[in-house]
Amino acid sequence: MVDPVQGENKRIAPRLRSLKAGRIVFHHGGSTLDCMIRNLSETGAKLAMEQALLAPDQFQLQFQDGAMRPCTVRWRKLTELGVSFDDA
């Protein structure tokens, strides 16, 4: 399947649409950025936020239930990030 915006789809697992609040945590918990989790799979997520350029290349994604997943940014736009989960 080809995404018209992203080009070739290279995802390992299908992503399900989501609209959940999340938090980007970095600097050993000293810094955070709020985000919305727009879609989610076992291996990654798409995050929306006001200024995605402020997020570091690697961080912890905190979910509403307090769970945390280590992430690496795979693509970046002005207000969106695509991340893979490092523990997947």
Could you please describe the fold and organization of this structure?
It is built from no helices and 8 strands. It is an all-beta fold and 88 residues long. The protein has a 6-stranded antiparallel β-barrel. A hairpin with a 3-residue loop joins strand 1 and strand 2. The two termini are 22 Å apart.
Task: List the topology elements.
Elements: E1 2-3, E2 7-8, E3 16-26, E4 31-40, E5 44-48, E6 58-63, E7 68-76, E8 80-85
Antiparallel strand pairs: 1-2, 3-4, 3-6, 4-5, 5-8, 6-7, 7-8
List keywords for this structure.
single chain; 88 residues; two-stranded antiparallel sheet; 8 strands
What is the count of DSSP helices, taking H or I runs of 4+ residues? 0
Order of helices and strands: EEEEEEEE
State which percent range the strand residues make up: over 45%
Overall shape: it is globular
* Classification by helices and strands: mainly beta
Rg result = 12 Å
Helix content: under 10%
Mean pLDDT across residues? 88
